Amino acid sequence: MRKGLIVILAILGVSSALSPSTYLTPIDKDRLKLVLDSAWSLSDLAQVLYASAGYQHLGQNVPDSQAVCTFVKSSLVNGATVESLFLASSVGKLLGCPIAATPFSKQAVAEAIREGASPQELFHAVTTATNIGIDIDTAKVLRATQMALKKDDSVLR
């Protein structure tokens, strides 16, 4: 009986020692940070989003976050796509420099939520609306989502 208890306690001790926090060593985190550092050249909005999210998950501060916020806001010009609005609003939300809703962004989101839109377009539009505080017609989103899933029920690319 005593041996069984010791074996169970040993197994529990080993299993609790293998937590997700032990998967990335400090060296792994430093190497990952080096991979993400190329985004701070501020040339690609998608890279900036992924690097910002990566830094947040690593518990690191984004270097020169004010310059990053300026880059993100300046990347939004009239004619920006819903995807670029999604990227910019997501970075703004992560860094605490929210993107303001403009008439153009409201129009772009409204036009993206339509029957015939892909699931990815709908995701970008709804996330953008959530990030910048635009009210959307949920019934319209539901109809468009149902139509999109009838055409394509695969995992988002």
Automatic annotation (TrEMBL):
Its pathway is: Protein modification; protein glycosylation
This chain's function reads:
Subunit of the oligosaccharyl transferase (OST) complex that catalyzes the initial transfer of a defined glycan (Glc(3)Man(9)GlcNAc(2) in eukaryotes) from the lipid carrier dolichol-pyrophosphate to an asparagine residue within an Asn-X-Ser/Thr consensus motif in nascent polypeptide chains, the first step in protein N-glycosylation. N-glycosylation occurs cotranslationally and the complex associates with the Sec61 complex at the channel-forming translocon complex that mediates protein translocation across the endoplasmic reticulum (ER). All subunits are required for a maximal enzyme activity.
**Taxonomic path:** Eukaryota, Metazoa, Ecdysozoa, Arthropoda, Crustacea
What range(s) does the Ribophorin II N-terminal domain occupy?
24-155
Identify the main location: endoplasmic reticulum
GO term, biological process aspect, one: protein N-linked glycosylation
Q: What is this protein's name?
A: Dolichyl-diphosphooligosaccharide--protein glycosyltransferase subunit 2
What does the UniProt keyword field contain?
Endoplasmic reticulum, Signal
Checking Pfam families in the record gives: Ribophorin_II
Compartment(s) of residence: Endoplasmic reticulum membrane
According to its UniProt entry, this protein's organism is Halocaridina rubra
Q: How does it sit in the membrane?
A: Multi-pass membrane protein
